[in-house]
Amino acid sequence: MTQKSPHVCIVAYDGLCTFEFGIAVELFSLPRPEFSSWYQTEVIAADGGPMRATGGIQIATDGGVERLATADLILLPGWRGAAEPVPAPLRDALRAAHARGARLATICSGVFVLAQIGLLSGKRATTHWRYADILADRFPDVTVDPDVLFVEDGTILTSAGSAAGLDMGLHIIRQDYGAERANQVAKRLCLPARRDGGQRQFVPMPEPMARTGGIAPLLDQIRAALDEDWPLSRMAAAAGMSQRTLARRMEEATGETPKAWLRRARVARASDLLERSDLRLDDIGVACGFGSPETFRRDFRRISGLAPSAYRARFSAAVASGA
């Protein structure tokens, strides 16, 4: 645990995401008189000119990138865009900070700043699931893990979208000040100190990219009868094509094999029933076409990152409403 108050710099810029910026401020800048020591936090400007966050909120800063020279922790809450260039002064300051051992942490699209300036080469990283493929395509030397809430690789931490920044921030607090303080901060935020699973649980069921060649009607037909068996032979017959042709067109349209798509469709339906109904878990498994309770639990955990019971406890409308 730390013996001094770490110097934290939160990087701000024009067009900043208000929510992600708020996460950084709430965790590291909010006064906490209940603690004998806490972070010394500044907001610094990525470049010159007026700065407004989304919603038109004007941002006041404590200085420019020169303040990064003494920072122990630098937070990048998102970025203007995956292809938006990093200003040279910010690039140089971040590289210098990394070279002297400062920790760098990003929320959501903030990962693109570090990727652009070469600090993620050969490292693992994550980002919001919507940007994961873009990150992997643009920076093939970065190992992108799209399923986790955050990644720590050496002195660099990257988090998934938006609220995952809270998980990463609590992890940092736990490292610096111990589990008890991190738990107190989490309690004040009405959050669990640690969350199970990853962002896989939030990724929606993919729709076919190409709604041609009879694939879309077939997928709709399968979704309407997920409780039934759908071997490849039945799918092909329903689509009026050979099994080989169906497999090729299915992968072209959805990016998945027929078997993988069917498994994901069953899990998507099960997720909806877990959220919106009070059916027993075994009954949900049957309604979604899983061959056994064991298969239901295995496939659901593989895709969502959570057991069905844990998913229901977290996302059930009945739980949320207090029913």
TrEMBL record:
<dbReference type="InterPro" id="IPR018062">
    <property type="entry name" value="HTH_AraC-typ_CS"/>
</dbReference>
<dbReference type="Pfam" id="PF12833">
    <property type="entry name" value="HTH_18"/>
</dbReference>
<protein>
    <submittedName>
        <fullName>Carnitine catabolism transcriptional activator</fullName>
    </submittedName>
</protein>
<keyword id="KW-0238">DNA-binding</keyword>
<dbReference type="GO" id="GO:0043565">
    <property type="term" value="F:sequence-specific DNA binding"/>
</dbReference>
<dbReference type="InterPro" id="IPR052158">
    <property type="entry name" value="INH-QAR"/>
</dbReference>
<dbReference type="GO" id="GO:0003700">
    <property type="term" value="F:DNA-binding transcription factor activity"/>
</dbReference>
<dbReference type="InterPro" id="IPR002818">
    <property type="entry name" value="DJ-1/PfpI"/>
</dbReference>
<dbReference type="InterPro" id="IPR029062">
    <property type="entry name" value="Class_I_gatase-like"/>
</dbReference>
<dbReference type="InterPro" id="IPR009057">
    <property type="entry name" value="Homeodomain-like_sf"/>
</dbReference>
<dbReference type="Pfam" id="PF01965">
    <property type="entry name" value="DJ-1_PfpI"/>
</dbReference>
<dbReference type="InterPro" id="IPR018060">
    <property type="entry name" value="HTH_AraC"/>
</dbReference>
<keyword id="KW-0804">Transcription</keyword>
<keyword id="KW-0805">Transcription regulation</keyword>
<feature type="domain" description="HTH araC/xylS-type">
    <location>
        <begin position="216"/>
        <end position="314"/>
    </location>
</feature>
